[in-house]
Amino acid sequence: MTDKLNDKCGSSSEEARLEDAWSRKVVVLKDLGSFAEIAAALRGLEDSGGFGGINSSDTVLSQSKQETYFHQDVAKALGKLRERMTNIDDTSVIIYPGSSSDETLARVFGPGVIHVDPDEYAMEAMREKGYNVAEMTIEEYVSNMPEEGRVDVVFSYNSGLVPQELLDKVPVGCYVIANNWHGSANSLGKNPRVTLVCAIDPESKSGEIINEEEAQAALGIITTESGNMNIDIEKNPNTLWLFRKNGEPSAKLQ
Prior knowledge:
Layout: H1 2-30, H2 35-47, H3 56-64, H4 72-82, E1 94-97, H5 104-109, E2 114-116, H6 120-128, E3 132-134, H7 138-143, E4 153-156, H8 164-167, E5 175-178, H9 184-189, E6 194-200, H10 212-217, E7 221-226, E8 229-234, E9 240-245
Parallel strand pairs: 1-2, 1-4, 2-3, 4-5
Antiparallel strand pairs: 5-9, 6-9, 7-8
Helix pairs in contact: 1-3
């Protein structure tokens, strides 16, 4: 009886071990090719008995499924900045590069926000919720815009620097909102083509707008020590800065 119990427990343990091992491999494989390519490869393993009864398609789907998410504190901060953007309305073109499956901007500025990201799983999750998506890089998106195309608001949130070609599409008097996780706000703060309007810290208990002078002082980097190395990191990475494109007011502002 003991031997039979050991055999049975050993069998279950082995199946669990195989399932866990293949699940981890699927995560790696997902980054190496399309769903169709991965599924075909895994079906071959399944047919040869390599999965021990695990369905490969179910495994891939469970790993690739992505949900949308929403940042309440960021939404409140965006709402405050939105009040300072008097020329933005329902006809405005609003772009969120590298959005992943973040609903936050669209929940504040409306369903017209265009979420641009090459991540097919993130874009599918947003598409299922009815949001506008463009499954490509921001550089590809801009290159496909008509010459007269415009972008009234860019939301650079944890997505790196704003590409020059995208900034070229922002008319005079329109806006870029950026945080500083990847130095986006620092870069814009040095760009003579935009003017800093104000900022807001989503994590602040007061939720108050930071005026231009204090917002400018909040930009920059700090140096910290890590072992024998000095590392420069961006100040206030979570703060949102509002920038306006320089020049005479556009026709939309008049």
